[in-house]
Amino acid sequence: METLDIRGVFLTRLCIRVWVIDELVSxxxxxxxxxxxxxxxxxxxxxxxxxxxxxxxxxxxxxxxxIDSSFFLKLREVLNFQTxxxxxxxxxxxxxxxxxDIDVNDVRRRVPIPAxxxxxxxxxxxxxSFWESAPLFDTFFSICHxxxxxxxxxxxxxxPGNTKYFWKKIVTGMIERKTIKKYWPDLEDxxxxxxxxxxxxxxxxxxxxxxxxxxxxxxxTWCSP
Length: 225
Description:
Elements: E1 2-7, E2 13-17, E3 25-30, E4 36-41, E5 44-48, E6 56-63, E7 67-68, H1 69-78, E8 84-91, E9 100-101, H2 104-110, E10 118-125, H3 134-143, E11 148-153, H4 162-179, E12 187-193, E13 200-202, E14 215-222
Parallel strand pairs: 1-3, 2-4, 3-5, 4-6, 6-8, 7-9, 8-10, 10-11
Antiparallel strand pairs: 11-14, 12-13, 12-14
């Protein structure tokens, strides 16, 4: 396991890029004036701020290997800070579907209280594989309840017809999550942002064939904890 111990009494912003993907990474930052922390790399084993947590924490998680339940359990521990989180999840592997070995129900039993500190999750995936990795997304929303969800197709996958497929798959998947409670039991409602007008609209089946877009944004309402 790689360990980073960073200290800076006057440090206000900190960005870390970790290239090692074969080992877990543990980060400890002593910076009492830190306001913004940005991390890019594989999932963290631990993140600790001995003085005080910054007001904003941005995590860009790069998925390269098969994902199992331990990925989400470690991420849930990182989300314990009472601060504003934004998470970006990227998957650039040439494999069409991200390999996952996840027991969603087991994760829900082990994480009875999802984090409510996540303002937004942003998924960046190859278009053809996005919703085929549905267990991945179901588990993400079992450990945290983000207010906004963004998704975008990788540019190299935006060939003719692919953007229409991408839009249809993700909108259909989100409608299923809205109507079938077994997926996201705490979910109350989902709104979709109009890709042209920019206004929030109730998500219904009429949106499935609405547009051919390589990106989409949703606003989620969750039951009170």
